[in-house]
Amino acid sequence: MNAKSIIYSVAAAAVAMMGVDAMACTNLLAGKNATIDGSTFISYAADSHTLYGDLQYLPAADHKAGEMREIRDWDTGKHLGYIPEVAHTYAVVGNINEHQVTVAESTFGGRHELADTTKNAIIDYGSLMYLALQRSRTAREAIKVMTDLVAQYGYCSEGESFSIGDPNEVWVMEMVGKAGKEKGAVWVAIRIPDDCISAHANQSRIYRIPMKDKENCMYSKDVISFARKMGYFNGKDADFEFSRAYSPADFGTLRGCDARAWSYFNRFKSGMDAYLPFINGKKGAEVMPLYVKPDRKVSCCDIQNMMRDHFEGTPFDMTKDPGAKDHFDVPYRYRPMGFTVNGVKYSHERAIATQQTGFVFVSQMRNYLPNPVGGCIWFGVDDANTAVFLPMYCSITEVPESYRQGKGDLYTFDFDAAFWVNNLVANQAYNRYSLMIPDIRKVQGAIEDKCASDQPAIESHAVELLKSNPKEAIQYLTNYSVNTAQNATARYQDLAKYLFVKYLDGNRKKEKDGKFLRNEAGTPEMPDFPGYSQDYYNDFADPSCDHLKEVEPEK
């Protein structure tokens, strides 16, 4: 390879070495007529126990004839092979490119025997996303790039749902391999109507395929015939359902996965209780649709807050079940999720927001603004519930230092790395959630509210600069994104220290006007002792706790 190829391969390897275990991701989508400002939205939580959250940047590049692109598995970094590079690749910031194309994913696995482990398959799902981002100007173009690549070079991952969007359209595409029996994959892609919202979360969501709607549906020519060949389906073509054939549902996929999509729909669409029988696995229950029309239009803030969901206010509310009662209403459960009591199997809920998140974003794409301004990926690291969504425009040419690749890793703590600072904040709250989350919301909300209020003026100025000096406009947006992120990291460093001091040893320091109180002599005031909830204390009214009763000594 020539020098440029070697440099590019190093960058690609850095992306691959992020090591995403994508078996627990959530995507929320919204069409342009379903949103308040006409944006299209795609959100993504990259949930993994081994992912270090940072923000990647791949600059645009020109490539010489014969130049090769190395493919490494996104999860493991394993070398898979080489494919020819294209003449020009587009710039990518996170999961959005310079043309406002966004690609995200969630792994559903499906029938595990369909994964192609032969040497003939060298394209994994992660590489597929970034290849599409670097080679596509629209969502439809991205779908073609992705499906052409796996047809030519083979698909070596398990079942995957992809969210693919641009300023005009959002699509859900689902793909599974062919077990090495044939090269490539079977797949189906459906455009979400402009006035609807959609979601997927580690389970195939496409059932019936509207094959006659050529404008809004695409699929591999063998999507049904291959299922017949494998013995997954033997009915009429009109009755074929992709999910039932390639990813049959069970308790885990319904309650642990589809329930997350249901919660999103339930927040913005009335009548979603009708699909609770489906979520709870009732035989013959009506299948939850791929998309619904919301009762009101959603905003960027709505999507951000939805990524913080723990099923609050629903039958699955994680702040109300026994796992939260003794731990300050904490809506988090540590792994393993399943457990057995007296021979009966149980499982904790799995909400959209979870502690083991590498990074999270809401991608905002707008057709009424020029690409450098219209594409904004609101990016955060660690748990979406406590993270701060910060604006990273698709045209920026520099990543904030605290979000850069190599700024710490899962084994190397760095207080100047946004990932570690956010974890310090979040992990303190996991111990005393109901006490600390108001303090976190105050700082988090102030940062996000300022970003939202500043957005119109920032973008208006950038649009004017683009008319006269595009280079200056790009630098302006880069400086804004970088400075905003660095300031947010500094605010969270202060927040992490503040929480540690305020709640030291289970107490709560007294404060006034943002300062901890001291007495007349200048020493700290006696702290409050917030104790536990009454529900916690009620558990002690049990014979096993009789030894803790206060009993007056006999006289």
- Total count of strands: 23
C-alpha Rg (nearest Å)? 25 Å
Provide the spatial order of strands within the biggest beta sheet.
16-14-1-2-19-20-21
Number of helices: 14
Briefly note the structural class of the backbone: alpha+beta
Q: State the end-to-end distance.
A: 93 Å
Strand content: 15-25%
Low-confidence stretches: 1-22
For the report, how would you describe the main beta sheet?
7 strands, antiparallel
The average pLDDT value, as a whole number, equals 94
Shape from CA axes? Answer: globular
What percent of the residues sit in helical stretches (DSSP H or I)? 25-40%
Write a compact overview of the structure shown.
This protein is α+β, with helices and mostly antiparallel strands and 555 residues long. The chain has 14 helices and 23 strands. Helix content is 31%, strand content 19%.
Describe the structure.
- With 555 residues, the protein is α+β, with helices and mostly antiparallel strands.
- It has helices spanning 3-16, 125-135, 139-153, 225-229, 242-246, 251-268, 276-279, 300-306, 322-325, 371-374, 418-429, 433-468, 470-502, 534-538, and strands at residues 26-30, 40-47, 57-58, 61-62, 68-72, 79-84, 88-89, 92-93, 96-97, 102-109, 159-165, 170-177, 185-191, 197-200, 217-219, 291-292, 338-341, 344-347, 357-365, 376-381, 390-393, 511-512, 515-516.
- The strands form seven sheets. The protein has a seven-stranded antiparallel sheet with strand order 16-14-1-2-19-20-21.
- A hairpin with an 8-residue loop joins strand 20 (376-381) and strand 21 (390-393).
- The longest helix has 36 residues, at 433-468.
- The protein is globular.
- Residues 1-22 have low confidence and may be disordered.
